[in-house]
Design goal:
Helix content is 38%, strand content 34%. It has 190 residues and is of the alpha+beta class. It has a single domain, classed as Chalcone isomerase. It has a 7-stranded antiparallel β-sheet with strand order 3-4-5-6-9-10-11. A hairpin with a 2-residue loop joins strand 1 and strand 2. The longest helix has 19 residues. The radius of gyration is 17 Å and the shape is globular.
C-alpha cells in the first residue's frame, strides 16, 4: 500500500513538473484541438537584439525531438504565442512573411502566396497587439489553419497542411528565426 501511495505522489509531482513556463508565461502541458489532444512539445522565447518579443509553445499529437518528425507529425498542432512587448500587426506580418520566405524556394512561395496573403490579412485586422496578447495558430485537420487572437478567431480557416507546415518552418525550418528557440520548441532546452 505504501508503495502505491508513493508511486501516485511521484506521478502527480512529475505531471506538475511538466507544466511549461517561459518568461513568466504559463503554457498548459496539453490542449484540446477540435476532437484531438496535443501535448506541449517544447517552449521558448523569441528575442531580437536585447528585446524579449514573445514566449511560445509548440503542441503536437505526441512529443518529437526532431524538426523533420515534428513537421511530418499527423494530427492537430498548435503554436501558442504570448507577446512580451507591444507590436503592430504589420510588424508581426512582416516577420512572418520573412520567416516563411527564408525557408522556401520561389516556386514554393508561389504555391503559398494566396494563403499567406489571406493569413496576413487576418493578422492585419488585429491592428496593434499589446504585451500579453495571446496568438494561437492551430492546425485542425478537419478545417485547416486557424488564427485566434485573444480568444477570437480571425479570418477563415485556411486549407492545406502544406500551408501550416510552411508556418511551422519559421521556427523549425533549416533557417529558423532563432536557433535556440528551435531547440527549445523541440524540447532540447539546457
Amino acid at each position: 500500500m505504501k508503495y502505491w501511495i508513493l508511486a501516485a505522489l511521484a506521478a502527480i509531482s512529475l505531471n506538475l513538473a511538466q507544466a511549461v513556463e517561459v518568461a513568466g508565461v504559463k503554457f498548459d502541458d496539453k490542449t484540446k484541438l477540435g476532437n484531438a489532444d496535443a501535448v506541449a512539445n517544447g517552449a521558448g522565447m523569441r528575442k531580437k537584439a536585447f528585446f524579449k518579443v514573445y514566449a511560445m509553445a509548440l503542441y503536437l499529437p505526441e512529443k518529437q525531438g526532431d524538426a523533420e518528425a515534428a513537421l511530418a507529425a499527423k494530427g492537430a498542432k498548435r503554436v501558442a504565442i504570448s507577446l512580451l512587448r507591444d507590436l503592430s500587426a504589420q510588424q508581426f506580418v512582416d516577420a512572418l512573411q520573412d520567416g516563411v520566405a527564408g525557408n522556401h524556394s520561389e516556386t514554393e512561395m508561389a504555391a503559398l502566396k494566396d494563403r499567406l496573403q489571406q493569413f496576413s490579412d487576418a493578422m492585419l485586422s488585429v491592428g496593434e497587439a499589446k504585451s500579453g496578447t495571446g496568438v494561437l495558430i492551430d492546425w485542425i485537420p478537419e478545417s485547416g489553419t486557424r488564427l485566434t487572437v485573444n480568444g477570437q478567431a480571425k479570418g477563415k480557416d485556411i486549407p492545406g497542411e502544406d500551408f501550416y507546415k510552411a508556418l511551422l518552418k519559421i521556427w523549425l525550418g533549416n533557417k529558423p528565426v532563432q536557433d535556440d528557440l528551435k531547440q527549445a520548441l523541440l524540447g532540447k532546452v539546457s
